[in-house]
């Protein structure tokens, strides 16, 4: 896969471009509809100054729960009420029964997937970004799930590949200009997971966001299915990548599937960069929306 470093404020992001260089592993503005995935006690405490994305659910110091109705940099839920809505927390424990993709549909989408990519791993990861596939109407929720999984399918050959195949690239993904360096070794930060997370600065950023030390333990992304899915959702929900918006916001705000491609691979594929790769992603998306019983919406290409 083609890895690149995005400059400026998005320099902490390098993502996969095509699906050919991975190896099977051995082992917003719309209102969010809650998934009811976690018991109340499992949602995190709100922290002032911590960035939140649409759909995030937190417990405030007054013991009440709030869900972000808009992305915000950690505004107080009881003061900045445009950014937060009260949330009725009634989940009965860990689980993701509210996910719009059933296990049968997931298996239909990925009939030849690597056993590493489990449905339970995906559903376990969803609680990290509760706004994913729960924001907006039922149609929008299904479209977002289809869009995410379509891009994942393209990046991994239908979830067949877990790690980057071209081992000659492995030593290239260490940026020693970062103050934390590459503590796991120069060749430890190769592409892994559904969106092929790579580079030490990406492992650091994703790990910090998820509360997992991926800088020192990058191998977790290829050994723990839930962690692998979490890194993909981290990018999808929080990173603009090579585009002007996150893929999550592109789907929930009506920009269309094409803008998710732009976020993931920018001009490498969009604006005539590689029409065949764009069409492959679109083909997956059209297939997956059909499986989920919804429409594709407009703006499929980029």
UniProtKB/TrEMBL annotation:
Does the record carry Signal as a key word? yes
Q: Which residues form the Chitin-binding type-3 domain?
A: 43-87
UniProt cross-references to InterPro entries, sorted A to Z: CBM5/12, Glyco_hydro_19, Glyco_hydro_19_cat, Lysozyme-like_dom_sf
- Name the keywords, alphabetized: Disulfide bond, Plant defense, Signal
The residue range of the signal peptide is: 1-27
Indicate what this protein is called per its UniProt record.
Chitinase
Q: Which organism is it from?
A: Streptantibioticus ferralitis
Give the classification, highest ranks. Answer: Bacteria, Bacillati, Actinomycetota, Actinomycetes, Kitasatosporales
């Amino acid at each position: 896969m083609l890895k690149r470093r995005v400059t400026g404020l998005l320099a902490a992001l390098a993502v996969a471009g095509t699906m050919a260089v991975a190896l099977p592993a051995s082992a917003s503005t719309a209102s969010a509809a809650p998934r009811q995935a976690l018991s109340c006690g499992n949602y995190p405490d709100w922290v002032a100054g911590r960035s939140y994305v649409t759909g995030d659910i937190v417990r405030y110091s007054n013991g009440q729960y709030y869900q972000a109705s808009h992305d915000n940099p950690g505004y107080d839920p009881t003061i900045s009420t445009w950014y937060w809505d009260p949330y009725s927390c009634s989940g009965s424990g860990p689980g993701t029964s509210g996910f719009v993709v059933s296990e049968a549909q997931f298996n239909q989408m990925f009939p030849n997937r690597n056993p590493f990519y489990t449905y339970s791993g995906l559903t376990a990861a969803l609680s990290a970004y509760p706004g994913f596939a729960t924001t907006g109407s039922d149609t929008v929720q299904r479209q977002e799930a289809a869009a995410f999984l379509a891009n994942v399918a393209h990046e991994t050959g239908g979830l067949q590949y877990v790690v980057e195949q071209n081992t000659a690239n492995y030593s290239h993904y260490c940026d020693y200009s970062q103050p934390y360096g590459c503590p796991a070794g120069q060749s430890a930060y190769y592409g892994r997971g559904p969106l092929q997370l790579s580079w030490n600065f990406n492992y650091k950023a994703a790990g910090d966001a998820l509360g997992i030390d991926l800088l020192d333990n990058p191998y977790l992304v290829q050994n723990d299915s839930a962690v692998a899915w979490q890194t993909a959702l981290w990018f999808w929900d929080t990173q603009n990548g090579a585009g002007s918006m996150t893929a999550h916001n592109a789907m929930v705000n009506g920009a269309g599937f094409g803008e998710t491609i732009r976020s993931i691979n920018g001009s490498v594929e969009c604006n005539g960069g590689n029409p065949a790769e764009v069409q492959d992603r679109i083909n997956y998306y059209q297939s997956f929306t059909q499986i989920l019983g919804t429409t594709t919406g407009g703006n499929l290409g980029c």
